[in-house]
């Protein structure tokens, strides 16, 4: 069984070639992917709607999480920690490289806790650091 097929099974998702291909892309990427990256990385017989639904399902299941991008778009990245149905547990920093344009999860870098004034309930915290990444710094 492939890694992607096993992941689908672990998360109780029915195996389809589309799902497996999308998951393979994320497993191989090492950085966050935009919808277009996913679309371009797949064989052309997958339409936009199916890809959108697949990403939606993976988000809901806790397989991938949303990564905010500075250009207002959304990217997606694999969840490394254990995220369950509808509950994502991570507060790691994302890094956007202005040279290669890739956004990476810095899984080991935690967002410092931010104290909010009374009456504000935190749901999600996003921290995007921009600069030059490790790969481009070589
Ligand atoms: Zn997650
Ligand atoms: Zn870079
Ligand atoms: Zn991330």
What does this structure look like?
The protein is α+β, with helices and mostly antiparallel strands and 138 residues long. It has one domain (3-131): Arc Repressor Mutant, subunit A. It is 30% helix and 22% strand. The protein has helices at 3-10, 17-29, 35-41, 48-61, and strands at residues 33-34, 64-68, 74-78, 92-97, 103-110, 128-131. The strands form 2 sheets. A 3-stranded antiparallel β-sheet has the order 1-3-2. Strand 4 and strand 5 form a beta hairpin. The chain is globular and about 45 Å long. It starts with a helix and ends in a 7-residue tail after the last strand. One zinc ion is lined by residues 62, 65, 79, 83, 88, 90.
Q: Which structural traits does this protein have?
A:
138 residues, alpha+beta, Arc Repressor Mutant, subunit A, 3-stranded antiparallel beta sheet, 3-stranded mixed beta sheet, binds zinc ion
